[in-house]
Amino acid sequence: MKTILEEISVYLGEAFAAAGYDAALGKVSVSNRPDLCEFQCNGAMAGAKQYKKAPAVIAKEVVAALPAENIFSMVDVVMPGFINLNISEEFLTDYLGQMEEAGREGRFGAPEGAGKKVVMDYGGPNVAKPLHVGHLRSAIIGESVKRIRTYMGDKVTGDVHLGDWGLQMGLIIEELRDRQPSLCYFDPDFTGEYPKEAPFTLSELEDIYPAANARKKEDEEFAVRAHDAVVKIQQGDPAYLALWQHIMNLSVPDLKKNYDRLNVFFDLWMGESDSKPLIEDMIRSMKESGVAYKSEGALVVDVTEESDSKEIPPCIVEKSDGAAIYATTDLATIVWREQNLHPDMFLYVTDKRQELHFTQVFRTARKAGIVPEEREMKWMGFGTMNGKDGKPFKTRDGGVMRLESLIAEVYDAVLEKIKENRSVAEADAQKTAEKISLAAIKYGDLSNQASKDYIFDIDRFTSFDGNTGPYILYTIVRIRSILKKYEEETGNAASADKLSVTGNPSAKAMMQEIVKWNAMLTSAYEENAPHKICAYLFGLCDAFNSFYHETKILGEEDETKKQAYLSLITLALEILETAIFLLGFDAPERM
Q: What CA–CA distances, in Å, run from 283 to 95, 161, 334, 341, 400?
């Protein structure tokens, strides 16, 4: 199904051709002067030089060539040659009918995407560390992009890619050694089977890591020991691997629980450690091909290109002591994904400060022959989530806020507003607050272009007015309540086959917002841009609420009109519900 702009452009193109001009000049755009018209065509201006005619002359000839069954309610030539257009309600109604019919099969007429096999790498938490606010954007942007691409027909595999092979593991083990030196893991003469239960709880683990991390900054000998412990893990030391497994067994379920609270779900829960079996062969291949070479004891790959405007350092694939680093495990992970998933595209979602890292990794992957040249490798870098002071979001005492603490703070703010506004049973209020607070967090983030920094303002994000998640949900709940009331009054569901809505300016305005869906969704898919869905949602919700306040929907005495209104808001509801699903949240039954 063509977008409405494509439909109108074809129509204008035929008129240009009928008047003796190039049909390509009939391209139509949304008006930049909505006070004058809804759409405009500037083709006469573009064709003036080509045909050596005044643009106004061309425009008048084109308008005269429009067929009698005009799809416009207004066509006006404005000097020096613009064609201003208003669409007819009949054409809008017909187009919405096609969207409604297509909606039953999926996507409401939006064309299917490229049907690619995509591996998405997002999330990226470090095992043994609680999720903090810095993990928020990767999770919710990645989840939304995954949902958008899946909805448009791609086969997407989302991988959390755990940081489970790094320095934090060595820090924890060495701190544990100093706290409990008698544990069998630290006895060089121990030959038995290591315990199945961890010698620490999750809460103890969460105390051990920050203490060890602070200690390494002041105790150089401790930092060296922690580094050596990482090497031992990577080299397969049984005692260290047993402790590593205990850490994994406690930490990963907790991570899953927190991601579940965010409605973020991964297909794969793999980590850096899963790439270990592939590293040796990968490094050997790089050496044998001459792609990698020794530099100051480390193994590196040159990745500079002639087009670079700034220096790109070599990619280190192995440290001088033989230890693997992020680039090593990222490359070996790509090897695994190539061998097992055979994707058409790799898509990574991380902090934009990692741009250099992924430039190096992607170029090394191509240069080393890990991925073929035609394979798409894309990186989405997102901006920083800041507090009202414009600096990275912190707790009141200046520390990094845990993600569950942020969620709880937003939840409490929403719950207080629910209780202030009306009398609701405690259990219902809590359940409703969970959904609204998630919408507040996700919409507050996703409504910003991913690459830009933004201010996380709890007061604004939890407001039920304005461009916020709660406002979107309130609109959805309002439409549901209208349809439910009609069903209770009549015993029938609203008719869904009478979309003929005419003579109501606010209804037409809502129709014009609905028909933007196809173009918007295609753009959001192609550009991996959830913020475009947010902008669409706000526009449609505003249009519905204007319609609601200006129109007696259930009080309409003309039954044909009433059914048309009900059908129109039913379609709006279906699209709104689809849109919030793509953003990763849903609406409560009541608000």
A: 58, 21, 13, 21, 37
Nearest in space to 150 (alpha carbons), one of 178, 112, 182? 112
Which helix (H) or strand (E) segment holds residue 289: the answer is: helix 276-289
Beta carbons of 40 and 83 less than 8 angstroms apart: yes
Alpha carbon distance 186, 463 (integer Å): 54
Return the exposure string of 337-375: e unless at least 16 CB atoms fall within 10 Å of the residue's CB, then b.
Answer: bbeeeebebbbbbbebeeeebbbbbbbbbebbebbeeeb
pLDDT digits (tens, 9 = 90+) for 324-362: 889 999 999 999 999 999 999 999 999 999 999 999 999
Residue 306 in tokens: 């002639």
Phi, psi angle pair for 18, to nearest 5°: -65, -30
* 429-458 pLDDT, tens digit each: 999 999 999 999 999 999 999 999 999 999
Instruction: Give the chain's largest Cα–Cα span.
Output: 97
Contact 227, 165 (CB under 8 A): no
C-alpha–C-alpha distance, residues 429 and 421, integer Å: 11
Give CA–CA dist 328/312, Å, rounded. 17
Please give the order of strands across the beta sheet that includes 298-301: 292-295, 298-301, 315-318
Amino acid found at 280: E
User: DSSP labels for 420-487?
Assistant: HHS---HHHHHHHHHHHHHHHHHHHHHTS-TTS-EE--HHHHT-SSSSSHHHHHHHHHHHHHHHHHHH
Long-range (24+ apart) CB contacts under 8 A made by 240-246 are 240/173, 240/185, 242/185, 242/194, 243/172, 243/173, 243/176, 243/185, 244/164, 244/169, 244/173, 244/273, 246/197, 246/198, 246/199, 246/200
Asked if 426 and 451 count as a contact pair (C-beta separation under 8 A), the reply is: no
Other CB atoms within 10 A of residue 169 CB: 26
Q: For residue 345, report the phi and psi dihedrals to the nearest 5 degrees.
A: -145, 140
Domains belonging to the chain, first-starting first, are 4-87 (3.30.1360.70), 274-382 (3.40.50), 403-583 (1.10.730.10)
Question: What b/e readout covers 483-516, taking b as 16+ CB neighbours within 10 angstroms?
Answer: beebeeeeeeebeeebbbbeebebbbbbbbbbbb
Q: What is the pLDDT of residues 166-179, one digit of tens each?
A: 899 999 999 999 99
What pTM did the predictor assign? 0.94
**Alpha carbons 55 and 80: distance in angstroms, whole number:** 6
Give the DSSP per-residue string, 137-200: HHHHHHHHHHHHHHHTT-EEEEE--BB-SSHHHHHHHHHHHHH-TTSGGG-TT--SPPPSS-SS
Alpha carbon distance, N-terminus to C-terminus of the chain: 36
316: number of CA atoms within 13 Å, CB side?
13
Residue 455 pairs with which residues in a beta bridge?
A: 386
**Beta-strand pair 39-41/28-30:** antiparallel
Give the C-alpha separation, 444 to 455, whole Å: 9
